Amino acid sequence: MRSSAEATRHHTMLLFDESMAKHTTWRVGGPARYYFQPADVGDLSDFLRSLPAAEQILWLGLGSNLLVRDGGFAGTVIAVCGRLNEIETIAGNRLRIGAGAPSALVARHAARAGLCGAAFLAGIPGTMGGALAMNAGAFGGETWQRVINVQTIDRRGVVHRRTPLEYRVAYREVEMPGEEWFIGCELQLEPGDAEAERREVQRLLARRNATQPVGQPSAGSTFRNPPGDHAARLIEAAGLKGCQLGGARVSEKHANFIVNTGSATAADIEALIRHVQRVVEQDAGIRLQTEVHIVGEPG
Q1: 3-class DSSP state of 127
Q2: DSSP structure string for 65-85
C-alpha cells in the first residue's frame, strides 16, 4: 500500500535569492542564496556532488522548528517537502517513509493500514526527515523508538543504509556518524485495530489544536523541556505568557510557543527567545535550551 503522493512526477527546481519567509512556519527570514528542490534521490545525489566542498547546506522540511535570520542564509537550502515523500507499507508491519513525508500524514497512513505505534507523529508539525534529525516527540512517543533503519546521503551524493546502533540518540538530539542527512527510514509498528488507531490519531490532533496556537504562525515548541520539568511551566511561572517584543509574542495558549502576530521579524523572535531565557534563568535558575534551530545572518 503506497500513498498517492508517490505517483506524482516531480521536476528539479533551483531558485536564487529565495525568501525564506515563504518557506518557514514563522513566516520570517531573509533570502537563501540558492534554494533547491530535487526531483528524486538520483537528482539530489547529482546536485550534492556538484556543490563546492565548503558550501553551507540547510535541509528544509515543512519549515517548522527553524528560525532563519533576516539577513538570510548565505548557502544552499535543500527542500524535501513534497519530494522524497513516499509512504509505503511493507512486510513485517513496517512503514518505509521518505524524509519529505509530513509526520502527521505518516500517522494517518499507519492508522489506515491498521498499524499501531505511530499515532504520536500526528503531534509533530514537520517532516519525517526533521523528526529523525532531532528525535522529535509528542504525546509521550519519540521517533527513534520505532526506527529500525535509515537511509542517508552524504556530501558526495553517496546513499548509505544505517541502523540505530550507529547513532547516539537522546532527548531531541541525534548524533550523526559524519556529515550525512536523512532521506528515508523504516519504522517497526504493531498490527492493531485500524478504526481504533484512526480515532487515536484524531484525538491527538484535537488535543494539539486545543492546547497549541495552531492558527498562528509559530515554529512548534521553542524550548526543550529541562529534565523533570516543562519549559511552558517555567515560562508561565516567570510571568511571561503574553509577553511581546515587536511582532513576536509568547502565546497565551501555550507558553512554550512564540507566535508571529503578523508583523514580526526574525530579529523580534530571536530577541524574545533571549528575553525568555534571561527571565526564566533569573526566576528559576534554569537556562532554557532552544529546540528551534537558529541559522543565517542578522539583518
Answers
A1: strand
A2: SEEE-TT-EEEEEEE-TTSS-
d(CA 262, CA 125): 20
Helix (H) or strand (E) run with residue 208 in it: helix 194-211
Q: Which residue has the cell 524574545?
A: 272
Determine contact, residues 4/101, Cβ cutoff 8 Å: no
Q: Which of 281, 162, 74, 136 is nearest to 122 (CA)?
A: 136
CA distance 164 to 150: 8
Closest among 3, 2, 81, 10 to 40, alpha carbons compared:
10
Q: How far apart are CA 19 and CA 217, in angstroms?
A: 16
Residue 272 gets the label, from left (phi > 0), alpha (psi -120 to 50) or beta, of alpha
Q: What is the pLDDT of residues 224-272, one digit of tens each?
A: 999 999 999 999 999 999 999 999 999 999 999 999 999 999 999 999 9
Active site residues: 172, 221, 291
Q: Residue 14 is inside which H or E element, if any?
A: strand 13-19
Q: What residues contact residue 15 under an 8 Å CB cut-off, 6+ apart?
A: 34, 35, 36
